[in-house]
Design goal:
With 401 residues, this protein is an alpha/beta fold. 31% of the residues lie in helices and 20% in strands. The site of adenosine monophosphate has 12 residues, from helix 9.
């Protein structure tokens, strides 16, 4: 009996440090506000994001090319540039299967074969870390046969309101410790919608930016009211910026391209052209003389764009100048994105608060591929090899663990 008691006591002693460690567990909530340009807080009233900057870290983050929604959310999730993560644009020609992938077409969007690399939720779960996810690109798709531990399906009704998304995240964080996700990813489709419709500089977009800021205030307050609130890192960021477009700044592709030259023309900003055998030079030579666009043979694309190795990219790529469109059907909206990450209008807001981040710190800036190594650090997991560099984001952290 005495032996039993002493064994039990020894076991208890062994377990104690473990449970003590567990109570100091850190959590991370990362939010994407689609199309939140880095300078909206200087253009509009954003008291909650300003408070986050004051109490935590602020930075201007570069998107990856092209500055569009699907490529960049999946880049943030995987740490791989679109050229390496498979989602090279919101839509593209799948040359292998002779089929069009489009984010708006659920049959192709939900096909895991398109999604390369490993999203952070899989890396985390392989290492025993639970995750929760609302509408982040890829999270409702069976990539490598798995989903985040908790997730919501984009195409399923009811489609959650912004408030319901916040409440669902909080419900997950209130689960018993063993079931609680240590990483929660939340997606909101504004201010992108308004930025397209009304342009980035408009009272309507200002009002939506203000609303999103208020929601971030609500989220933060709810996180802070959790018993372990001070151990929850909150990151608010975005996929790309937004720039004014105009019917005056359109290059009509039909004026230059002959249908018999092209196998397929796809994607806007940039446009991928799959040329028919023998016509590559005809296409290239005619477009080379056109103003307001850059045209490259796939292998000539400037290295800083990290674009051109995927077989989903055409053998000729056409990129319009900032605010211009190369198209057959010009957009009727006032704002667009998809341009070079080096254009300030395409860059995004980054805010991060709580225990692992510095206080009142303005970072030099980094690229969205760096978020995957950042999250891996915050979750204390071993990252996969990616295009990201922890060294570039390290300066945002108060390294004390
Ligand atoms: P963009 O054309 O690049 O402005 O795309 C923005 C749009 O992407 C949003 O308005 C949503 O309709 C769509 N979207 C964002 N996330 C998802 C998702 N997880 N699943 C399906 N569609 C999405
Ligand atoms: Zn977007
Ligand atoms: Zn958009």
């Amino acid at each position: 009996m005495r032996k039993l008691i002493s064994t039990a006591f020894a076991l208890l002693l062994l377990l104690l440090p473990l449970s003590a460690q567990k109570t100091a567990q850190h959590y991370t909530v990362i939010v994407s506000l689609d199309g939140f340009r880095w300078d909206y807080p200087t253009m509009y009233e954003t008291p909650n994001l300003d408070r986050m900057a004051h109490e935590g870290v602020k930075a201007v983050m570069l998107p990856s090319y092209p500055a569009s929604t699907f490529p960049n959310h999946y880049t943030i999730a995987t740490g791989l540039v679109p050229d390496h993560n498979g989602i090279i644009n919101n839509s593209f020609w799948d040359v292998k299967n002779k089929r069009q992938y489009s984010m708006g077409d659920s049959a192709t969007r939900n096909n895991p074969d398109y999604y390369l690399g490993e999203p952070i939720w899989i890396t985390a779960q392989k290492q025993g870390v639970k995750t929760g996810n609302i509408y982040w690109v890829g999270s409702d798709i069976a990539i490598k046969g798995t989903y985040p531990t908790y997730h919501k399906v984009w195409a399923e009704k009811p489609f959650l309101t912004f408030e319901q998304r916040i409440d669902s995240a909080i419900v997950w964080l209130q689960k018993p410790e063993e079931e609680r996700p240590r990483l929660v990813m939340l997606y909101f489709e504004e201010p992108d919608g308004s930025g397209h419709h009304n342009g980035p500089r408009s009272p309507e977009t200002g009002a939506v930016v203000h609303r999103m800021d208020s929601l971030m205030g609500v989220l933060r307050a709810k996180i802070e009211s959790l018993p372990f609130g001070e151990n929850v890192n909150l990151i608010v960021t975005s996929d790309h910026g937004m720039v004014e477009i105009s019917p005056e700044r359109v290059v009509n592709m039909n004026r230059y391209l002959k249908p018999e030259w092209c196998e397929m023309i796809d994607g806007r900003t940039p446009t991928s052209i799959f040329s028919k055998a023998g016509y590559r030079d005809s296409i290239y030579n005619v477009l080379k003389k056109v103003e307001h666009i850059s045209v490259w043979k796939k292998e000539e694309i400037p290295a800083e764009l990290n674009y051109g190795s995927s077989d989903r990219i055409g053998d000729i790529v056409v990129a319009p100048e900032l605010g211009w469109q190369f198209t057959d059907v010009a957009r009727s909206t006032k704002g667009a994105h998809g341009y070079f990450p080096q254009s300030p209008e395409m860059q995004v807001m980054f805010r991060a608060v709580e225990s692992d981040f510095k206080k009142g710190y303005t970072a030099k800036g980094f690229v969205n591929v760096d978020i995957y190594p950042l999250l891996s650090y915050l979750l204390q997991i071993v990252p996969e090899k990616t295009d990201g560099q922890f060294e570039r984001v390290k300066e945002t952290l108060e390294i004390k663990r």
